[in-house]
């Protein structure tokens, strides 16, 4: 005999199983929030967007990266290690020099004056990344690729002709970090940290006479309007921008999502690494600055570069030692790698 109640129970169980299965499938589709403090007009921003697209493609739509540019989530860069560790955001674009309060050793991994040839940067890049991965892991953050910054020329942009350390002795120089202030101080040259957004006005009003800056992109901040002369000093020791994910977020991913995330991050890393050193780009940029009216002076002499590098390494070592045991270890590891190349 058929039992209506039995059919009802069986149907109810089947429906429940169906709903559970659908819920399980839906649960596999995860969205992660990604913080970036960089404006959307920066080249790095497009690389982050591309990373998000690659993750979606490689995971067959199972993993979505929601990118928030220009600090749109209202998070502060100085707090980012704590923010990730506490799960307030899933992912972030990380830059080691930003976290001097919580992880001062990370600022000691790399410093200006570390290299004198662009090729040295690529040779030690793996060492640098390993050290950053080590430091971020202390905050329950894993690195899944990132953006290797282009190695731009760094030079002095001045109102008067300057292409030697002796010429700088009676000048006031704008720099972007405390390490650089200490470096120039060791050379008997006055320097002060002035944010990029205030640099133009500082030059225009005479607060400083020269700007130590990334020459390749100097026109983007209109330095040709407030300086007339430029002289090359050394290549930019550019710390990479890294894609960091909290271990909390990482634990939510299945194998397919994790593989997609890692493959996408490494693809961006390898592609940007391949184009980071580009002499043709630098030569073209120099020509463009000449056409804007900048007078290109002879480069700083080899003797001056050596003197600058010696001071930079001395200031770098002091900064590392002040950061503690990890800072000293990072400094020694990178300088040894540079010396062996």
From TrEMBL:
<protein>
    <submittedName>
        <fullName>TRAP transporter substrate-binding protein DctP</fullName>
    </submittedName>
</protein>
<dbReference type="InterPro" id="IPR038404">
    <property type="entry name" value="TRAP_DctP_sf"/>
</dbReference>
<feature type="signal peptide">
    <location>
        <begin position="1"/>
        <end position="27"/>
    </location>
</feature>
<keyword id="KW-0732">Signal</keyword>
<dbReference type="GO" id="GO:0055085">
    <property type="term" value="P:transmembrane transport"/>
</dbReference>
<dbReference type="InterPro" id="IPR018389">
    <property type="entry name" value="DctP_fam"/>
</dbReference>
<dbReference type="Pfam" id="PF03480">
    <property type="entry name" value="DctP"/>
</dbReference>
């Amino acid at each position: 005999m058929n039992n209506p109640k039995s059919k009802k129970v069986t149907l109810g169980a089947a429906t429940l199983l169906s709903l559970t299965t659908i819920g399980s499938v839906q649960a596999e589709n995860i969205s992660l929030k990604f913080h970036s403090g960089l404006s959307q007009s920066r080249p790095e921003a497009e690389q982050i967007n591309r990373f998000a697209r690659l993750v979606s493609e490689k995971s067959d739509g199972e993993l979505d990266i929601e990118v928030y540019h220009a600090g749109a989530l209202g998070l502060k860069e100085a707090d980012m290690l704590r923010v990730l560790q506490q799960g307030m955001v899933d992912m972030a674009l990380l830059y080691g020099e930003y976290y001097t309060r919580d992880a001062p050793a990370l600022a000691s991994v790399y410093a200006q004056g570390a290299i004198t040839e662009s090729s040295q940067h690529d040779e030690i890049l793996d060492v640098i990344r390993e050290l950053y991965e080590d430091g971020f892991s202390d905050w329950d953050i894993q690195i899944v690729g990132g953006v290797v910054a282009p190695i731009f020329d760094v030079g002095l942009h001045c109102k008067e002709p300057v292409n030697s350390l002796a010429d700088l002795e009676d000048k006031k120089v704008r720099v972007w970090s405390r390490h650089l202030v200490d470096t120039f101080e060791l050379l008997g040259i006055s320097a002060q940290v002035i944010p990029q957004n205030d640099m133009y006005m500082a030059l225009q009003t005479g607060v400083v006479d020269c700007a130590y800056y990334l020459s390749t992109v100097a026109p983007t901040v209109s330095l040709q309007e407030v300086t007339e002369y430029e002289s090359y000093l050394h290549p930019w020791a550019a710390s990479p921008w890294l894609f960091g994910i909290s271990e909390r977020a990482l634990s939510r991913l299945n194998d397919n999502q994790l593989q997609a995330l890692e493959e996408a991050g490494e693809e961006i890393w390898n592609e940007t690494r391949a184009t980071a050193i580009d002499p043709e780009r630098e030569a073209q940029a120099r020509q463009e600055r000449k056409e804007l009216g900048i007078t290109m002076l002879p480069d700083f002499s080899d003797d001056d570069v050596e003197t600058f590098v010696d001071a930079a390494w001395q200031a770098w070592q002091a900064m590392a030692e002040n950061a503690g045991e990890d800072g000293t270890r990072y400094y020694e590891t990178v300088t040894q790698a540079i010396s062996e190349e």
